[in-house]
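REQUEST ID: PR-0412
SUBMITTED BY: lab tech R.K.
PRIORITY: routine
TASK: structure prediction, single protein chain
INPUT:
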Amino acid sequence: MRTLYGRPVMEIEIAGVDHRDIPDYSDAFVVSAIWEDTGEELNDDDLNALCAEHIYSLILIKEGTMQAIQQRVALIEEANNLVKEGQLKQREDVAKLFIASFTPEEIALICDHLIKVVQRFEENKNIPS
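STATUS: complete
OUTPUT:
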């Protein structure tokens, strides 16, 4: 659940997502959203504030975290080829490039997802067959 000014927001629509513009997403914006407590639409100022605060996690949710990761993995594979060709010195350079390609918001979202996956695994592990 996304919040703005401490109030829950729902039915968030975004547009202008261009993955070639990672990590800036300078054209992405929130088109519309609704205050959960009143059912009213957010005004333009509120939409801009919501965009500024949550656009990265909204993009990951809309487009799918795995798609974003797959694109980064493709970039890392290219970097690995540069290592093989001697243009990058160490695989640590590749790992740094990979980690640096994520925003703090994306890292938090991915960590939350991984925690849920582990919790589901642990729950299923304890189910008698």
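NOTES: The helical segments are 44-63, 65-84, 91-100, 104-125.
REVIEWED BY: pending
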